[in-house]
Amino acid sequence: MARILLVEDDISMGFLLVDFLESNGFDVKLYKDGKKGLEAFRKGKYDFCILDVMLPGMDGFTIAENIRQEDKKVPIIFLTARSMKQDKIKGFQLGVDDYITKPFDEDELLYRIKAILNRINLQEESSKEDITRFTIGSYQFDAANQNLEGNGFAKRLTQKECDVLKILCLSKNEIVKREDILIAIWGENDYFHGRSLDVFIAKLRKYLKEDESVSIENVPKVGFVLNG
Amino acid sequence: MARILLVEDDISMGFLLVDFLESNGFDVKLYKDGKKGLEAFRKGKYDFCILDVMLPGMDGFTIAENIRQEDKKVPIIFLTARSMKQDKIKGFQLGVDDYITKPFDEDELLYRIKAILNRINLQEESSKEDITRFTIGSYQFDAANQNLEGNGFAKRLTQKECDVLKILCLSKNEIVKREDILIAIWGENDYFHGRSLDVFIAKLRKYLKEDESVSIENVPKVGFVLNG
DNA sequence: CTTCTTTTAACATCGCCTTAACAACAGATA
DNA sequence: TATCTGTTGTTAAGGCGATGTTAAAAGAAG
User: Fold this and answer.
1) Do the Cβ atoms of B92 and A72 come within 8 Å?
2) B175 touches chain A (CB under 8 A)
3) Is the Cβ pair A95, B116 closer than 8 Å?
4) Is the pLDDT reported for residue B47 higher than 60?
5) CA distance A97 to chain B (A)
6) Which of A96, A106, A176, B226 has its CA 20 to 30 A from that of A65?
7) Average pLDDT per 10 consecutive residues for chain A, totaling 228 residues
8) CB-side exposure of B160: number of CA atoms within 13 Å?
């Protein structure tokens, strides 16, 4: 679970927050002093920081500044009794992600934390590239460019040809069910789409016939296997 | 620059925001009606959404729900006169990124937008933006000077001709999706902009026909490839 | 106004996908 | 074995949406 660094000098507020966040599945470390908080950040690995602005030792702005110097990404939320505009602007300029004025609603804080963490997770997910290049016997298949090339031979596939071949490639040497292909590409499994699929299989077989070690095998009433 | 979809029925508030955001370098589209706003989102590609909660036609929650169905990532901020806790929680559950109650401070809104965009942009790279000179077969294309020259031949390209050719050059020998070109140049993907693109492709083909090793290949229903 | 660029319109053309038609095949039944 | 039946293999035709192309209208800049 996500580790949160909380720096807050008000003891009752601090424990309240720790309780609340821990009961929501976060792993929270509480520090009451600015310098100690920053020190802890440098030593440990935190996914999230919640900083009070008014602190003994070192104020929230300074902590944020220091944190940003070594970590440009870790989300930071400020807690403040003040709702002064200048304070908020200063915070955002330091790369703070959100700003919450006391007294605040715990649930709202929770949702704001979740909103920011979600954004990070989505970002990481989308940076995973999907596989687009496959080797099929002596062929090279580039799904992104809809391009199939063998020795001397090169063919630009149509979108549907490409879709079908990609699905087969993703489960090479394994059975892919007719139904799964139909649902994935056409969104429905009926007689006519089934016949369309058969037409595309025939086309792909033609393209792939140069290398006789490659074949698209039919498993009657079940589906197809790309062997190679 | 970042494109913002703003849905706000209060006319004066709407224009105020548009003015303010545009003067801060954003490209803002304003819709006063919920349904129209959602429709616009589906057609164009937006980097950011700012939705009023109370709207005629379709309320902000419903818009957000629909937007989240097709785009899990685009940041959404709610504007609301109400500061009801239940409303806020509902919003965050829909995957909203922030929640701002009216009357709000424009600068604070701006910094909140920037905070969220910063988080997204941290991982993005913009290395391709600066390239301006390309070799296309026996042609030389200088995007900065909108100049295309072949043997003996030299042609000053118009802005849009240049934009289209540049995008194709940046992914030479690779498929560039129609949609991507339309979004990059026109900001939205609809029928008429699509036909405009086809017109520009025809023009570019004419300019490039001197070297027959160069071609702009159509990949039906997907996009184009600059071969050379 | 003129001049240049972009969009819209109109019509021609292309080619992908579906559908149809028939052949081949496998499995079931007797 | 032969026959029946449903599935798949294969090719071809046609519809229809997408694209190619040119010209006219609209827009922008001076």
Assistant:
1) no
2) yes
3) no
4) yes
5) 6
6) A106
7) 88 89 90 89 88 83 87 84 67 75 77 82 65 91 95 92 97 96 94 97 96 94 94
8) 14
Residues B72-99: tens digit of each pLDDT: 778 888 888 766 666 666 767 777 878 8
- Asked whether residue B126 carries a pLDDT value surpassing 60, the answer given is no
The two structure tokens encoding residue A65 = 């500044």
Cross-chain Cβ contact B122/A73 below 8 Å = yes
**Which residues are within 8 A (CB) of A107 and not within 5 positions of it... i.e. 6 or more apart?**
B85, B89
**Does nucleic acid strand C have an atom less than 7 angstroms from the CB of B103?**
no
What's the pLDDT score for residue B84?
65
> What's the pLDDT score for residue B109?
84
Q: Do A122 and B73 touch (CB under 8 A)?
A: yes
Please tell me whether any atom of strand C lies within 7 Å of the Cβ of A52: no
Q: How far is the CA of B177 from the C1' of D17 (A)?
A: 18
Nearest CA in chain B to A123: B120
B209 touches strand D (CB under 7 A): no
Measured CA to C1', the nucleotide nearest B159 is C5
Q: Which residues of A170-208 are buried (b: 16+ CB within 10 A; e: fewer)?
A: eeeeeebebeebbeebbeeeeeebeeebeebbebbeebb
Per the model's pLDDT, the better-predicted residue between A194 and B48 turns out to be A194
DSSP notation for chain A:
--EEEEE---HHHHHHHHHHHHHTT-EEEEESSHHHHHHHHHHS--SEEEEESS-SSS-HHHHHHHHHHH-SSS-EEEEES---HHHHHHHHHTT--EEEESS--HHHHHHHHHHHHHHHHHHHHHHSPPP-EEEETTEEEETTTTEEE-SS-EEEPPHHHHHHHHHHHHTTTSEEEHHHHHHHHHS---HHHHHHHHHHHHHHHHHGGGSTT-EEEEETTTEEEEE-
Measure A219 CA to C30 C1' (Å): 27
Q: How many CB atoms lie within 10 A of CB B55?
A: 22
- Would you say the C-alpha torsion B87, B88, B90, B91 has a positive or negative sign? positive
- Name the percent of chain B lying above pLDDT 70: 91
Tokens 């990059």 found at: B184
Mean pLDDT within B35-49: 86
What is residue B125's predicted lDDT score, i.e. its pLDDT?
Answer: 44
